[in-house]
Amino acid sequence: MDSLLQSNELDKGIAVAKAAIETSRAADQRPSDELYVRPIQKLQAAKRNSEVLDLMTLRLRDYNQPQVWRQALFILLQQSGDSKEVGLDILRLMRATNSMLQRPEYLEYAALATEAALPGEVVALIKEGKASKVIADPDAKLDEIAKAQAERMGDEESTLTAYAAKPSTLSVAKTAGATGDAMVGYRRYADAIPLYKAAIAAGGDKELWTYRMGVAQALSGDAAGAKASFAQVTGQRKRLADLWVVKLDAPAAAPADVAAPSQLTPESWNEKRRHPTGLAPFFKKRRLRAPQAPAEAGDQGSTGIPASCFAVRIVSEVLTLVTLGAEVRCAVRNDWKLCRSRATTLSRKSISPLSI
């Protein structure tokens, strides 16, 4: 395999790697991780993005490790563009696979769930992050987000059951689907399923609600129902649906030597760059949002979150944290020159998936 890859006979090298992988699996042996990593490196260099994800999806069958999930899902997050709903769905899978390993992922998830009006999900997420020690206790920023969302949450959960049964809820696709999302945020997965079915029956976005119904089924323990739902997803969430099926089928994670993710410590943000896996730069940009600052007088939709703003950018595969301050209004877009008010942006430049 290596000789073919080194001589730029990429397709042949990948074919040899895949054959060796299947031979090992047929013998009930786990393939060497190098059979995945080396071709992925070359596919990266050739910018064959879809095939990178194909091979990383296969890798997850044999290396069901949080760091491997994180690598694959960061690639998918990079390719999600500006779709906040898809970004939220990717982060939910990251959470379900225990692959949220660093604080910025919690900030991004909290921002998107806050914007989607899911306070119960935000509060539960931050509690999990603290329980796993990824989020420090105290953490001023995330503590304030949790406090604001807990106040916003109020007695929402106790009223959901009655609200979900109302004909006016079930007959409007967006209302039914949004109520299903709220149920999932409170871990009431079985209760969310009929609401997603109602959203589909009312003529809503079939792909969106079918996908999210599959997630609710998976989280409720109905693997067969989840797979049936994921099989119907054919649009932009197709890759996510396939990854959920991999998660459902994957054996329990076993110890393995895999490409280790870089740790976002204060020291590593500014240290000399050295790529641990030798992978070529691949990604250009990825913006991560933080919760919006409080609305000014007359503004709608304030979440009560202070107007703190930061930007994180990757230069030659290394994250550098820059704290901009409470009133800084800057976001990096496209060529890093477009600014907008009260936004936080995590832009990624030249990041290699196996270095995450």
Tell me briefly what this model is.
By secondary structure, the chain is mainly α. It is built from 17 helices and 3 strands. Among the domains are: 1-62; 259-356, no CATH class.
Could you characterize the architecture of this molecule?
By secondary structure, the protein is mainly alpha-helical. 54% of the residues lie in helices and 5% in strands. It has 17 helices and three strands. The chain has helices at residues 2-6, 10-26, 34-45, 49-62, 66-78, 84-96, 103-115, 119-131, 140-153, 156-165, 167-170, 173-185, 189-201, 206-220, 223-230, 238-249, 266-270; strands at 309-315, 318-325, 345-347.
Order of helices and strands: HHHHHHHHHHHHHHHHHEEE
Q: Mean of the pLDDT scores?
A: 77
Q: Helical proportion? A: 40-55%
Shape: globular
Unreliable stretches (pLDDT < 50, length at least 5) are: 259-351
User: What Rg is obtained from the alpha carbons, in whole angstroms?
Assistant: 21 Å
Alpha-beta classification: mainly alpha
The share of residues in extended strands comes to 5-15%
Q: Strands, helices and their partners?
A:
Elements: H1 2-6, H2 10-26, H3 34-45, H4 49-62, H5 66-78, H6 84-96, H7 103-115, H8 119-131, H9 140-153, H10 156-165, H11 167-170, H12 173-185, H13 189-201, H14 206-220, H15 223-230, H16 238-249, H17 266-270, E1 309-315, E2 318-325, E3 345-347
Parallel strand pairs: 1-3
Antiparallel strand pairs: 1-2
Key features of this structure:
single chain; 356 residues; mainly alpha; three-stranded mixed β-sheet; 17 helices; 3 strands
